[in-house]
Amino acid sequence: MSExxxxxxxxxxxxxxxxILTVVTVAVAMVDLGALNDVVAMGIAIFKASLVVxxxxxxxxxxxxxxxxxxxxxxxxxxxFGLTLSDYVTRGFL
Amino acid sequence: xxxxxxxFGRRLHYxxxxxxxxxxxxxxxxxxxxxxxxxxISLFFALGGLMAVGIRLELATPGADLVQPxxxxxxxxxxxxxxxxxxxxxxIPATLGNFLIPLMIGAKxxxxxxxxxxxxxxxxxxxxxxxxxxxxxxxxxxxxxYTPYSTxxxxxxxxxxxxxxxxxxxxxxxxxVNFIVxxxxxxxxxxxxxxxxxxxxxxxxxxxVIILGTPVVAVTILMVAAERILRxxxxxxxxxxxxxxxxxxxxxxxxxxxxxxxxxxxGVISELITAFTRKRIFGYKFIxxxxxxxxxxxxxxxxxxxxxxxxxxYAGAVFSVLSMLVAVPSAIKVFNWTATxxxxxxxxxxxxxxxxxxxxxxxxxxxxxxxxxxxxxxxxVHDTYFVVAHFHYVMVGGAIMxxxxxxxxxxxxITGRLYPVFWSKFSAIVIFVGFNLTFFPQFLLGYxxxxxxxxxxxxxxxxLNVMSSAGATILGxxxxxPLFYFFWSMRYGERADRNPWGAIxxxxxxxxxxxxxxFHEPPTVDWDAYAYLPDTPGGTGEAWDAAKPTSEAPEHx
Amino acid sequence: MAEIHAPxxxxxxxSYQQQKEAAFFGMWVFLATEVLFxxxxxxxxxxxxxxxxxxxxxGSRELDIVLGAINTAVLIGSSLTMALAVHAAQVGKRKMxxxxxxxxxxxxxxxxxxxxVEYSHKIHEGHFPGPNxxxxxxxxxxxxxxxxxxxxxxxxxxxMIIGIGIMLVLIPLAWKGRFTPESHNYVExxxxxxxxxxxxxxxxxxxxxxxxxx
Lengths: 94, 557, 214
Ligand code: HEM
Ligand SMILES: [Cu+2]
Prior knowledge:
The structure holds 3 protein chains of 3 kinds.
Chain A: H1 8-30, H2 36-56, H3 64-90
Helix pairs in contact in A: 1-2
Chain B: H1 21-25, H2 30-58, H3 69-104, H4 113-136, H5 149-153, H6 158-185, H7 198-230, H8 243-277, H9 284-297, H10 313-341, H11 350-373, H12 375-381, H13 385-415, H14 421-448, H15 462-492, H16 541-547
Chain C: H1 16-51, H2 53-62, H3 65-91, H4 94-124, H5 142-175, H6 185-209
Helix pairs in contact in C: 1-2, 1-5, 1-6, 2-5, 3-4, 3-6, 4-5, 5-6
């Protein structure tokens, strides 16, 4: 793995993108979209988190194992949420 | 020359490279840290064993003859907490894993030696928290800390114990991170993934479970402590909380935790079976992948502990089916071990006795697990002695058998000494007999309806309970014998040579005990794991051994 | 075999490259455990919010969106300065490492300061969970929202305090020139940790502050 030095310009760009997205989240929250509000808020949060992971944390230029580790931890989080909710969501079915 | 020999002309190794308390307490050598762990976990094993003695004494009679109900609750809780969190979970990884993984992959040490040492200190701090709780009077919630009893009603030392469990989690995580990075980054040239000993694969899978599961129980325990200290109601239904959520979070870790206990043991068994049959293991890749799939599938089944909570029946049905799926990779391993035995030249050395014991007892434990995972059956036997028997078959008959088998196999490597053959075989048999006498009657008791966690029972159950208590006595004696001869062997045992079993593996290429940096020449690997070829002349471990350049310094200067 | 004594290279590694890869991979594996650590809390959030939607909305309305948004910006800013500290390490500007980390501490401290203001407001209004919790509205179980709020933000803040503590150790080392372009794993590894803490907040902000604003 040769040393990749991310140029400062990229960091600044990502920073501004994150700032704008923060403003967007707050703005969208002001509009009542019903259940969609949560979807949009989480969508933006996931996007912001991905920017941080890919650029600030250099995952875009990292080894495959690092990428796998990131994906695996997200996946395990989904196992935790998914199977727990599988109980709560299906309780009313009976 | 100081690299190879000490002042007395003896071969220099990790044990005599340095003397004094400080050289142990500040060591970064994974082999010494493994021994430090061995001492610590043995202490907690003994303490947990004492609690078990109390339990079995009380249960020898139907009435409450020995202890008060409250004391009894504390006894079985402390027994569970000490045995699971402070003994079984660290047992094989922290001792044999720590000692052997760098040796088996041809590395000088683990990737993060300081973290390794720190993990031992963290472990001991956790042990102190727990001992503090014991000294104050113990806990009575059961090792599962079910809420709201643990958070609101229990009058025992829940927070101190919780702190212990929380802290010991950090020590496991440190070890697991170390193992994963070491196995990925520090293998000797030529040692590809599919040339790794299965012991290493098993520890890799175990470490995955530890890093992905332990943090969840840590934060859950933290919530329990917060609830108790701040008198809030995260899990207390009276204050709007949900106790079933606690169970979900707890079992998300604690089911996988049973694989933390059994996987390393399975890794040991794979090593023992091949070494004592002189055969290449049957289905190497299947066993390797079975370890990883057990680790992954193990995260999808936790709801089988909650069939009788208010969990939805649909979730229950899904968890039931998924639980049966985990049995598949476990069964693959058992079949592959037995297939390896077939037509092997089996030698009945002590470690092999433990390995064979493991296979039989784990099979019983695993199959009764499948019975319990069947929703319709579990409704009847949940929280009975049937469950108690099930998990002791896997944890004591499985995990501890593997631990002892491994200790006996690598003891000559660790100490450079041999232990007495007769006594070691004798104690292995005593343990096997005592174990079955203790726990088989518990299957019957549970099936007949004796609930767990009570100090009294109807007089009808006494015969089986007395059998169990008698068996426990035998088992206890069986565990004491190795303690004596292991200590004895350290001083008086015959010296072991480099490869006393004629086994194949990097750890047998270096001296017994190994030098501080493990190998004098960094090894290169050009053979598959367990390259025993019994049909070809020169295919034995001894011949393999002779053909390899020794990477050991000259014996005895 | 002759031992090569390279500064900052531990004996059991063959090369800087191996040491560096091990350090980063170890950090990532550790961060995976951190994800699951916060994951337990997020799971509790999910379950309790779906059980008490009105209470969570009501609790959320009590929080100060302006302060929350400012803090989000401050934390993102601190991620930028941290990234610049890592950059300085990669190009070997030792004083700049220290300076950018100092800036990161300032921003992190600002975040914590604002958090203290928020906490004291809530405590003052009787919204700290416990026997003294008060709620006058019609919603039931608003206390659960504050349980979750204080636990999540509290653990997040604890992570920041630990982070600031580590930087206080790293800055003098950086100043003394301990970190070279070849060997600065502590700086870069710590950077990963700090960005992770930022990410947690990126999720906490909408989940706690922005329910039912519209
Ligand atoms: C072969 C796969 C296995 C299956 C399908 C299985 C299934 C089960 C089920 C369904 C229960 C819940 C019984 C109840 O409370 O009603 C249970 C309990 C338990 N099992 Fe297993 N098991 C398996 C393997 C293991 C292994 C390998 C271990 C440990 C090394 C283990 C340790 C335990 C423990 C400790 C409990 C009791 C927990 C408690 O309530 O205190 N199991 N098992
Ligand atoms: Cu289970």
